Amino acid sequence: MNQPVARTRIQRKNIRLISDAALSVFSTYGFRGATVDQIAKEANLSKPNLLYYFPTKEAIHRHLLSTLMDTWLDPLRDMDPDGEPLEEILTYLRRKLQMSRDHPRESRLFANEIVQGAPHILDLLATDLKALVDDKAATLTRWMDEGRINRTDPHHLIFSIWSLTQHYADFEVQVGAVLGPEKPDPYPEAEAYLTTLFTRMLTPDA
Amino acid sequence: MNQPVARTRIQRKNIRLISDAALSVFSTYGFRGATVDQIAKEANLSKPNLLYYFPTKEAIHRHLLSTLMDTWLDPLRDMDPDGEPLEEILTYLRRKLQMSRDHPRESRLFANEIVQGAPHILDLLATDLKALVDDKAATLTRWMDEGRINRTDPHHLIFSIWSLTQHYADFEVQVGAVLGPEKPDPYPEAEAYLTTLFTRMLTPDA
DNA sequence: GTCTATAAAATGATAGAC
DNA sequence: GTCTATCATTTTATAGAC
């Protein structure tokens, strides 16, 4: 039961409980800093019961990463080569920002993994992710060739969208501390700022 | 010897050895994921000898964070209210990018700490860091009032410089995996891209 | 499927010799 | 200042009853 396939109702429910608890704990402490005990307590299960569903701590972590990886890249996959360039890029930007707001734990799970050298997914980054990014970079380059957006480095354009949007989830406590308690939701201003930033960057010069 | 003051030559040398080793280990595994054993081995010292200089694992971590905090904020502190606005901002951007290139472990040490909720420095973020950022945001706002840069949200402008520059250190393995082995140094392109981005964003409209 | 009990290893920290 | 030996605790994982 390495990647458990839920059959019964109770199995599905417990696997969901464990996954949710593990997401909280791994995203807060990283893989090495997380303990099975914490996850079990967070899921309201005994430790042996948890290990009945996932044989090892690493199996839970692997399950989370591979489950989330696809979802995480959907917005980039959906960037339409046949769409209107600036609109496609701004839609991608907004969907990424929305994922930071709605799924900050998922963002921090990946942040922990990558900051710590991506030991569990380095191969995926160098194969699947690289292939997807190279493909989308080619689309961006074509849009630049056609004069529909300003010419710039397409890979670094994608990196900048990642870093700017994920920052609000990954560095949430810092953003909150700097803005102070009277500004509990930074996302409306963030969206306005980032929309302006990329619109100015990419709108073709007159 | 909580924040050890080096007196003899050998003390200074060992404290430097330990600090450097601890920086490597903490930045790779986070506080909870790091072990004293790893740090001792990395420093080529026995574990008890290491604990002769720092009484606990937490003391080493605290020593690193407080030593590095000041250095880390120097570029922002140095942004001159009386300078030429765009030049000051681009200089800040470039110094931050250079810190990512030259001190990626320090960047990842902070990234780990903050992603994991900043348990050891949350108070500093809400006091010292907030005060500094609010002060510089006021300078940016004045520049906007004077029409010397485009009007935008000053706090999110600062956040964007942080996220864009630190990304190259914190997510180094991802950047490397996506760009591939034939592009081992992303910094020249990053600097060109980011310079264009902020120049377009901030240069006042005609 | 779930539990109590526990084995086996790791980890933070200390004792005490030199 | 540095080391070997070791303690106390935490942590991963398993055994076996129900």
Secondary-structure blueprint:
2 copies of one chain form a homodimer.
Chain A: H1 9-33, H2 36-43, H3 47-53, H4 57-77, H5 85-102, H6 104-115, H7 122-145, H8 154-170, H9 172-179, H10 187-202
Helix pairs in contact in A: 1-2, 1-4, 1-6, 5-6, 5-8, 5-10, 6-8
Chain A binds a DNA duplex (18 and 18 nucleotides) through helix 1 and helix 3.
Walk me through what this model shows.
The structure is a homodimer of 206-residue chains. Chain A has 206 residues and is an all-alpha fold. Chain A has a single domain (9-202), classed as Tetracycline Repressor, domain 2 (Orthogonal Bundle). Chain A is built from 10 helices and no strands. The first copy, chain A, has helices spanning 9-33, 36-43, 47-53, 57-77, 85-102, 104-115, 122-145, 154-170, 172-179, 187-202. The longest helix of chain A is centred in the N-terminal third of the chain and has 25 residues, at 9-33. The model of chain A has no long low-confidence stretch (mean pLDDT 96). At the A-B interface, helix 1, helix 6, helix 7, helix 8 and helix 9 of A face helix 1, helix 6, helix 7, helix 8 and helix 9 of B. The first copy, chain A, binds a DNA duplex (18 and 18 nucleotides) through residues 10-11, 14, 35-37, 45-49, 51-53, 55-57.
Question: What distinguishing features does this structure have?
Answer:
206 residues, homodimer, 76% helix, Tetracycline Repressor, domain 2, mainly alpha, DNA-binding
